[in-house]
Amino acid sequence: MGLKFTPENITSLGEDEVFVFGSNLEGRHIGGAARVAREKFGAVMGQGVGMQGQSYAIPTMQGGVETIKPYVDEFIDLAREWDQTTFYVTRIGCGIAGFKDEEIAPLFAEALPLYNVRLPESFVRIIEENNKKGRRDKEKV
User: Which residues contact 70 (CB under 8 A, 6 or more apart)?
Assistant: First the structure.
């Protein structure tokens, strides 16, 4: 099965597709992917979390990676439930919020097997490498 990745530059979506972006808790969607979500996919100013039009906000500006994880987990639960919807996850937290892909990608490990979630290629490569490393570490024990 070939993996499908989130395209680098999303400018339009089909009917059952959702743009997943990094936001701030205040919902000030003024820069980066958040601005794209507001201008093209229905993100609502003042709403920093969850579904909005054809977009889904995951807050990334409120602290460390540990503060992002609960929001990613909520998203993954929703993606499991809404299995007829395709979710395109952008490199959340890796722009204005200042995190590295290596910090954020592992948060999405549980989303990798979901057929309706597309992750950035960089996230997939990191998750796959971490999985291989984990298997190698188990074999050494």
Answer: none
Structure tokens at 36: 């794209």
Q: 77-121: per-residue pLDDT in tens?
A: 999 999 999 999 999 999 999 999 999 999 999 999 999 999 999
The Cα 14–Cα 77 span in angstroms is: 22
Q: Which structure tokens are listed for 49?
A: 């979390």
Domain range 17-140, CATH architecture: 3-Layer(aba) Sandwich (3.40)
Rounded to two decimals, what is the model's pTM? 0.93
Residues across the chain: 141
**Cβ–Cβ contacts within 10 Å for residue 110, how many?**
16
What DSSP character marks residue 8? S
3-class SS of residue 52: strand
